[in-house]
Amino acid sequence: MAGSGLAALFDAQYRGSRTQVEVPLALRRDRLLRMRTLLDENGAALAQAVQADFGVRSPQLTEIADLFVLRTLLSHTLKALPKWMKPVKVRTPLYLQPSHAYLQRQPLGVVGVVSPWNYPVQLSLGPVITALAAGNRVMLKPSELTPKTSALLAELIGKAFAADEVCVVLGDGQLATGFSSLPFDHLFFTGSTAVGRIVARAAAANLTPTTLELGGKSPCIIDASCDMDQAAIKIAHGKLLNAGQTCIAPDYVLLPRGSEAAFGEAFAKAVAKLFPTIAGNPDYAAIISPGHHERLKALLVQAEGEGARVQVLDPGAAAGRPESRQMAPVLVFGAAADSKLLNEEIFGPILPVLPYDSLDGAIEYINARPRPLALYWFGTDTTARDAVLARTVSGGVTVNDTLMHIAHENLPFGGVGESGWGSYHGEAGFLRLTQQKPVLVSSKWARGDLFYPPYGKRFDQVMG
Ligand code: NAD
After folding, report:
1. Is the pLDDT of residue 276 over 80?
2. Does 462 score more than 80 pLDDT?
3. Which residue CA neighbors atom 42 of ligand 1 most closely?
4. N or C: the chain end with fewer CB closer than 10 Å?
5. Which sites are catalytic (predicted)?
């Protein structure tokens, strides 16, 4: 789409948002219900499109990780919306009484959404639903790496919404550059930290506030007090869901020195249980593109070249279909400190295992690196747990499991530092895309005149 097409779509939404500033509950509900119908009628087609884009990815995975999440978000939002939209009274200090004050919750206007390919339905429509609930108009730019899903989203949204309510624009990085240069009232970006920096710069030129949902390296700490088998299956599930292509997947494991072999064994058992075969197993997603597949293989080649030991876990072995880009889970022991594997987000089924000698050492390792999107801790020693929680800062945490904090509708979801800023889900998302306008209603009995000049003696009486 040419720049003029983008500008025309934006202008129509912008005009609409300035002429219809008040967006009543009934209209917001109607938009959310249209979204629900879209999902109800087209969930299966969307799951098929995702499968076609990945090559291998079971429709059930899309059902759980994309569609179920969106249905839950819609139900929660529809139920809570009347309360969220209400003005919020605030206490008024004595010197301003009997005036009263409240926060009026209003739409921001036009919200831009840029989404990635890994959960292409959830991460596109989740922010759109949140923006609509807050009364905004929305332009969505989904990923070019899932062309079938993105085209279907464009078609379905085009049928369900007027272009000045919600529209989808399709294109690659070049179009995305034009997109993020539009003077949105808010730009909601989900993607890599590298592109997040570019988006933040483009938005700053327009003073457009952003929400950046980025990536990074999420650590998983195994405490000496943990049950290794239980930890291993939960880590394997979180790591291998979508073949590691999950923003909050455990990126690496920190464990007490000496327990590497026990973890390797327990992890291999867990993989065999979850994925009796890898090649041809639709539950085990393919790597999204040849480029990402090559990137992951190169990480392993580099690590091995530098002396790391690589443990490939392919329980079904043989019968590989290399063209499917299904990459077997891999544990890596002894990776070099400056290897790419330990310094770049992995975003695939490779799990480096790093021993620590003391809890302090593990905490220092984490704190010497950019703040992670998620952190996981496994064990029963609550003193150790609380030390890790108190002395590390991350976007979110699940204790004794992986991923699950993202599924809690009352927990805000987002990053911190290089893993992003701003959070959404539940009321946090509604507020992120809402202007909370402070309003003071002055009473005729209010003594504002106490502060008028001439100050003279009266000043001392009032301030003293
Ligand atoms: P990406 O940053 O390459 O692309 C994301 C989107 O940005 C795509 O739609 C792309 O077209 C667009 N884009 C590319 N260049 C752009 C530019 N110059 N200006 C504006 N937009 C541009 O990310 P990806 O490969 O699609 O997704 C994987 C990354 O996303 C990983 O780092 C992962 O951790 C992260 N992620 C984060 C979350 C989260 O909620 N925090 C969720 C999923 C994925």
Report:
1. yes
2. no
3. 247
4. C
5. 213
Ligand 1 within 6 A of 144 CB? yes
Question: What is the best residue among 123, 139, 143, 201 to mutate for testing ligand 1's pocket, by most ligand atoms within 8 Å of CB?
Answer: 143
The residue nearest atom 40 of ligand 1, judged by CA position, is 213
Amino acid at 377: W
Q: Which pLDDT tens digit goes with each residue over 293-344?
A: 999 999 999 999 999 999 999 866 644 455 679 999 999 999 999 999 999 9
183-201 burial: b if 16+ Cβ within 10 Å, else e: ebbbbbbbbbbebbebbbe
Pocket test for ligand 1, best of 114, 187, 213, 419 (most atoms within 8 A of CB): 114
Give the predicted TM-score (pTM) of the model.
0.96
pLDDT in tens, 154-213: 999 999 999 999 999 999 888 999 999 999 999 999 999 999 999 999 999 999 999 999
